[in-house]
Amino acid sequence: MNSLIRTTARCLRSVYMPRQAVWSTSARFLCAAADLQKDLGEMVKKDKVVVFMKGTPAQPMCGFSNAVVQILRMHGVDDYASYNVLEDSEFREGVKVFSNWPTIPQVYFSGEFVGGCDILLQMHQNGDLVEELKKLGISSALLEAGKESK
Amino acid sequence: MLPTVLRCLRPVSTSFALSRPLAHFRPHMDPDPSRPVEKSIRTKLTDQLRPEHLEVHNESHMHAVPPGSESHFRVLVVSSQFEGLSLIKRHRLVNEALKEELSSCVHALAIQAKTPEQWGSNPSLAKSPPCMGGSRGDHTVEEKLKAGRE
Question: Which residues form the Glutaredoxin domain (chain A) (predicted)?
Fold first, then answer.
């Protein structure tokens, strides 16, 4: 599996690094796939907010991924882990298998799968996102803005 | 609504790295008047979710795919089967109903899943964000388009 490019924007963290295997091709493939699932399990728990997306927050490559970035930005959530699935097709498929979710982007809060763009948008519109961020210990910028306007 | 998100336009960059060589789209393809994928989506959602109201929109023309593609869809499903279910559970029901399409020819699926009461109080179809060109040169999308043609 190709190694992924480490991003440097302030809201990005290190991305998935491949493991080495010395067995036959098929065994190596199965081992790598199982390793990836295990690694994803760790990745989604390592940070409070994790986003699997197309492109990066600085340069999204998909309108739906961009929507997730914009929503998080509106709430003042800049410090989150972002993984670009376009960098590696095996990683991309592994993410879909891990979440049992067929599309990208995918959002995780404290290791729990939240949903994609549609769900995040609805949560933003109905106020649930502010509440869920509060549970993570993150105070939404919209909440702060609301207090200041009173 | 989220006008900033939905109107946001960023420069489209084609300079991202890919792990596989680019495949060429067929230069011209007449739209299939029978729209088999759209019909299949409509049939399956009707059979499995018994919706009071259903809209299936082919949004492929809004994305970087050849004319006549059936790769990007938006569905609005209003069903009493969604009563008491979280957004993610509702979306998983829709994903499950369309798992064959999602694993073959459908690349993107935007979902609105409402109860009849929710639809009654807000009968509106959400708009998809502008495409940022991510499908162009995406090997996975090319495979799905090929699957759709076959």
Answer: 49-114
Report ipTM for this prediction. 0.78
Please tell me the pTM assigned to this model.
0.77
Our count of domains for chain B comes to 1
Q: Write out chain B residues lying below 8 Å of A102, CB-based.
A: 95, 99, 102-103, 109
Interface test with A, best of B8, B19, B72, B96 (most A CBs within 10 A): B19
Q: Which of B7, B3, B1 is nearest to B132 (CA)?
A: B7
Q: Do B88 and A54 touch (CB under 8 A)?
A: no
Per-residue pLDDT tens over the stretch B73-104: 999 999 999 999 999 999 999 999 999 999 99
Residues in chain B with pLDDT values less than 70: 1-33, 137, 149-150
Domains of chain A: 2-149 (3.40.30.10)
CB A95 within 8 A of CB A52: yes
**How does A59-97 read in b/e, with b if 16+ C-beta sit within 10 Å?**
bbbbbbbbbbbbbbebbbbeebbbbbbbbbbbbbebbbe
Single-letter amino acid code for the residue at B142: E
Contact assessment for residue B64 and residue B135, using Cβ atoms and an 8 Å cutoff: yes
